[in-house]
Design brief:
Oligomer: single chain
CATH superfamily: Ammonium transporter AmtB like domains
Number of helices: 15
Distance between the termini: 80 Å
Strand order of the largest sheet: 1-2
CATH topology: Ammonium transporter fold
Main location: membrane
GO biological process, one term: ammonium homeostasis
Keywords: Ammonia transport, Membrane, Transmembrane, Transmembrane helix, Transport
GO molecular function: ammonium channel activity
Subcellular location: Cell membrane; Membrane
Structural class: mainly alpha
Amino acid sequence: MIVQEQEAIDKAIEAITGDMGALWITIAAILVFFMQAGFTLLEIGFTRSKNSGNIIMKNIMDLAIGSIMFWALGYGIMYGSDLVGGGFFRSSPSDQGYFFFSASDWYNLFFQTVFCATAATIVSGAIAERTKFSTYLIFSAVLTTLIYPISGSWYWPFDDDAWLNTAGFVDFAGSSVVHAVGGAAALVAAILVGPRIGKYVDGKAQAIPGHNMAFGALGVLILWLGWFGFNGGSQLAWGGDDTVAAGSVIINTNIAAAIGAIAALLFTWARYKKADISMTLNGALAGLVGITAGCGAVNAWGALAIGLICGIVVVLSIEFIDKKLKIDDPVGAISVHGVCGFLGTVLIGVFALDGGLLYGGSGKLLWVQTYGSLAYILWAALASFIVLFILKKTIGLRVSEEEEVDGLDLHEHGVEAYPEHISSQNN
């Protein structure tokens, strides 16, 4: 009798723990969903007012298209049970409910859907103010249906069939799986689309200031908030040791963001003799992106070091890409997500408590982190180039000069986001 009662109690506890975990993942997914608002405000603030409506449309469509395509196909490609092409991606029989998703773990689908939308929207900012809306929608659909799910299947199913998981690769919440993939796609897109009119004159980069730093700052703060769900929710459970682990992840995330902002502030203050607003905001994002891979693998001091390094590197990277490579990225997405996504992933090989160089590691983890992250970057770059090159040769990537000068809001959407007297000041 006592044994039966204990078994009943254990089952009840197990059920409650499972429900708490599902609730935590759902709440975290809602926070990540809200990050789409942060990306929208950030991009609007860092660009000119005449293109604000276009940016709003792109970010909403990233979420809308990503939600449908990931439900229909992407989730099955990423998490299916059957391997295709020797493990290049996955699929599942229809009776398992992965294609046109109808399985029982709906909360996992929602959580992974908002991650997929994040990867897509990274590209938006890098090619803002000069890209055809129709072309962007097609690329967003391809990225959320194929590019992101295929590479995501290499690690996140966390089974022996995922080759990077088997290799010992660590990317807790997606510095490479999400951010480096989005950053690499953004790099290729920005190169193929080309710079905005007036960005480079006689070979020299010209500043094209964003029209609303208040929007930019609010966007960053929303992203900072949402990142607690992005990283914390990736613990994928709640209760007991998982509660402690999720709390540690959240603190590591906050520490990296804070020191990233401080590092960028002090570095630019010393470099430019001014406390640069946009660089400070990007420093916070750089810290967030950098710690995303290792937030569950390092301690608070490791998070501090990673955030500090990324906060400085993002400034140097934005300058190098803008002035030396002459690639026009209005919001710094390539540096924040691509460069710091790669750097944060690699730095796990230094700061991880298990296998990091500073904690007795042999260097194996550092090697795995490096080639694993490069695999994501190369895949995203190659796949994006193929898709965008085809689009460029067929329907085109870029709007006309007249449309760019007048603003995409007017020509692509038939309406201006601001009253005319405000918009005319930002042309």
